[in-house]
């Protein structure tokens, strides 16, 4: 999966144009992790928004194959990871730190309806 395709697959970025998605690429780093590595620790403050490029992660009982992401709500709210995420296989990830994630916040209009429930609004 390409970096562009990975960001395009993020549900919360659905309303972004291709140009906007392209502009975010410079804010994302590629990271390799080994099978068994803990990518996010449940209950600890979220440090990164992650999109799977290659391999599979396990978030609690949910597998995260290429194109899936985690950490959106926790990054947006600067809160704790809801669950521990572990690499099921050697994987390649697209990662954004808090500083990098600010670029996303500048593009995505949201309405908070209740804590943890962000809804993306289509541009007017």
Portion in beta strands: 25-35%
Q: Total strand count, please? A: 10
Which sequence of SSEs, written as H and E, runs from N to C? Answer: HHEEEEEEHEEHEE
DSSP helical segment count: 4
How would you characterize the largest beta sheet?
4 strands, antiparallel
- Determine and state the CATH class: Mainly Beta
Radius of gyration: 14 Å
Keywords:
single chain; 124 residues; alpha+beta; Jelly Rolls; 4-stranded antiparallel sheet; 10 strands
Question: How would you briefly describe this protein structure?
Answer:
This protein has 124 residues and is an alpha+beta fold.
Description:
With 124 residues, the protein is of the alpha+beta class. It has one domain (3-108): Jelly Rolls (Sandwich), CATH 2.60.120.10. The chain is built from 4 helices and 10 strands. The strands form 3 sheets. The protein has a 4-stranded antiparallel β-sheet with strand order 1-8-3-6. A 4-stranded antiparallel β-sheet has the order 2-7-4-5, with no helix packed on it. A two-stranded antiparallel ribbon has the order 9-10. The N and C termini lie far apart (31 Å).
Question: What is the secondary structure topology, with strand pairs?
Answer:
Layout: H1 3-8, H2 18-24, E1 29-33, E2 38-40, E3 49-54, E4 57-59, E5 62-64, E6 69-70, H3 72-77, E7 85-87, E8 91-96, H4 98-107, E9 110-114, E10 117-120
Antiparallel strand pairs: 1-8, 2-7, 3-6, 3-8, 4-5, 4-7, 9-10
